[in-house]
Amino acid sequence: MKSEMLKTGLFAVGAVALVAAASWIEPDSYKAEIYSDTGQTFFPKFTEADMVKAIEVVDYDEVEAAARPLKVEFRKNRWLLTSHSDYPAEARDRLARTSTALLDLKKDQAVSDRVEDHSNYSVIDPLDAKNASLTGRGKRVTLRDAQGVTLAELILGKPIKEKQGFRYVRIPGQKRTYAVKTDADPSAKFEDWVEADLLRIGYNDIAKLTLNSYQIDEQMGRIINPRRLAMVKDKENWDNQARSIANAIGSLRVGGARPKPPTLAQQLRTGALELTLDVVMSLRQKGFFISPMGALLANEGELTIETVKGLVCTLRFGELVAEGATGGKQKDSRYMFVTASARNPEAEPVAKAMQNKFADWYYVISGADFARLHPQSAAAKGEAPQRPSGLPQGIPPEILRQLQERGAGAAAPPQSAPPPAGPPKQ
Fold first, then answer.
1. Where are the domains of the chain?
2. Which of 138, 248, 288, 401 could make a disulfide contact with 155, Cβ separation 3.0–4.6 Å?
3. Tell me, what's the pLDDT at 354?
């Protein structure tokens, strides 16, 4: 009798275990829960794209093991890249696409409620400092209104190979991963949010190119080893190199921008450069100098572009950008200083508008673009003599004193006060 009762008890325990296992493997309640919100809208309170006044995109650089944020805000009646020193956000189509991509987004299908699956779907939050994984991180997108209230926030994972137009997504702070149909793929790269064609000069617009290569003897305040090459279209010297440079001008894209001191920006607009402390320090840090005669010099040379309509643009190439400062993988990015002027009255309005735009910024370009735009300087980099670490002569004594106090380097004493600085020489 006891044996029968023992058998019965064992069967009962086994049955309970089987039921528990079955409910764990495929529970009806679990299935009902994970599919309970299928077809619902992610962000029901987000009803109009015009509600969006701030966009933040955070991508993850697996090589650098760092999150890369980009933030765009609507301020003073225009969109600005507030994560990049308030540079104007000029890519209107990208603004519109990003704002509307999450509007009326539906929860098409829930695929997992397991945190362990986040890496497989690439929906790990790029801002999650507690997660040690360097892979499987997604792109976090946040839309806010004028008061800073979050309208929509989502982590975009990888596309689904089996379903074209679908990708995995997750709401930050929640476990559940969804498969949704969306074309949302906002960029966290500076160059994708600004005007693609910085100079607006195409191959057919160019009449003449002039390459100026030189080194700067900073202690003596003079140019050494100058080399000048002028290339005129449809002339004998318009060779493959000239055509390559002209094509590079039309495809030039900037990878970043740094603000100039307001004093320097205003001087560039008025055309009169003065040697003040903040101007000298800012220029020197980026690889640019003002000669005692008022000429603007660059330690990696210049490229002057003359168009058939009389517009003149000068690109001056400065120092390498500090590693990691560009927010990307380019290790050889460098600063570029752009000025514009006119050869005839007809070109003056365009030149003035361009000069007003360029006056505020040091641009950042890739090493590859530098090599294409100024092949002579790029090729000679390994052969250039070491430049002294002093400062140009002709700087006023009070500026020299302040620079030395800041540790800007030993400078030769000025031999005379500088003459009044004129407009930057092309």
1. 49-190, 203-405
2. 138
3. 95
Q: Annotate 200-232 with b (16+ C-beta within 10 A) or e (fewer).
A: ebeeebbebbbbbbbbbbbbebbeeeeeeeebe
Q: For residue 29, count CB atoms less than 10 angstroms from its CB and return exposed for 0-12, middle for 13-18, buried for 19 or more.
A: exposed
Sign of the torsion formed by the C-alpha atoms of 348, 354, 360 and 362: negative
Enumerate long-range contacts of 323-328, CB under 8 Å, 24 or more apart.
324/64, 325/256, 326/255, 326/256, 326/364, 327/68, 327/190, 327/256, 328/61, 328/68, 328/189, 328/255
CB-based contact 144:54 (threshold 8 Å) = yes
Burial class (CB in 10 A: 0-12, 13-18, 19+), 148: exposed
Hey, which residues does 155 pair with through a beta bridge?
Answer: 140, 170
Residue range 8-22: mean pLDDT, rounded: 47
Gap between the Cα atoms of 231 and 265, Å rounded:
31
Q: Which of 126, 148, 141 is nearest to 180 (CA)?
A: 141
DSSP 337: E
Query: Which amino acid belongs to residue 295?
Result: A
Q: What residues have CB less than 8 Å from 63, skipping those under 6 apart? A: 329
pLDDT tens-digit readout, 318-340: 999 986 544 444 568 999 999 99
Element (H, E) at 306: strand 302-307
> What is the spatial distance between Cα 126 and Cα 120, in angstroms, rounded to a whole number?
14
**Neighbouring residues of 211: CB distance < 8 A, sequence distance ≥ 6:** 227, 228, 229, 231, 245, 301, 302, 303, 374, 376, 377
CA–CA distance, 388 with 385 (Å, rounded to integer): 9
* All residues at 6 or more sequence positions from 385 whose CB lies less than 8 Å from its CB, including other chains: 215, 225
Q: For residue range 165-176, list pLDDT tens digits in order.
A: 999 999 999 999
Judging by beta carbons within 10 Å of its beta carbon (0-12, 13-18, 19+), is residue 276 exposed, middle or buried?
middle
Confidence of residue 36 (pLDDT cuts 50, 70, 90): confident
Mean pLDDT of 314-320: 95
Reported as a single tens digit per residue, the pLDDT across 200-257 is 999 999 999 999 998 877 666 677 888 899 999 989 899 999 999 999 999 998 999 9
Tokens of 87: 């540079």
Quick one: CA torsion of 312, 315, 316, 322, rounded to 10 degrees? 160
Rounded CA-CA distance 89/93 in Å is 11
Rg, C-alpha atoms of the chain: 30
